Amino acid sequence: LDGCPSDIGPLSEGEVCLLPWKETDVGDVTEYTDSGLPPFSDHIYRVSALNSAGSVTSYPALARTREGVPSGIGTVQALTRTHSTISVTWDMPTSPNGLIT
């Protein structure tokens, strides 16, 4: 099993990772869970199987981890505009961990 490194940022559909693959020998299994991945990160996986007759490798499969809670919100400012209105502004999170809406 090998996967594209997660620190390259999200991949668009059809985009291929050109960085070196991380190979993981998971032994004689037909299922594997890759854990500890960062939120909202893209990974490409290929599976290789081999025996005494030869080997075969799957086509790459793209998977994205689920969104996580944003972190690192910077300065928050609240300004009085009128006797009944306040304007609140803040910096974008340093780690959005997903789409900010």
Strand content: 25-35%
Overall, the morphology is rod-shaped
Computed CA radius of gyration, to the nearest angstrom: 21 Å
Give the SSE order as H and E letters.
EEEEEEEE
Structural class: mainly beta
What is the count of helical runs? 0
Q: What is the tally of beta strands?
A: 8
Distance between the termini: 35 Å
Helix content: under 10%
Strand order of the largest sheet: 2-1-3-6
Major sheet description:
4 strands, antiparallel
Give average pLDDT, whole number: 83
Low-confidence stretches: none
What does this structure look like?
With 101 residues, the chain is an all-beta fold. Helices cover 0% and strands 34% of the residues. The chain contains no helices and eight strands. The strands form three sheets. It has a four-stranded antiparallel β-sheet, with no helix packed on it. The protein has a two-stranded antiparallel sheet with strand order 4-5. The chain starts with a strand and ends in an 11-residue tail after the last strand. The mean pLDDT is 83.
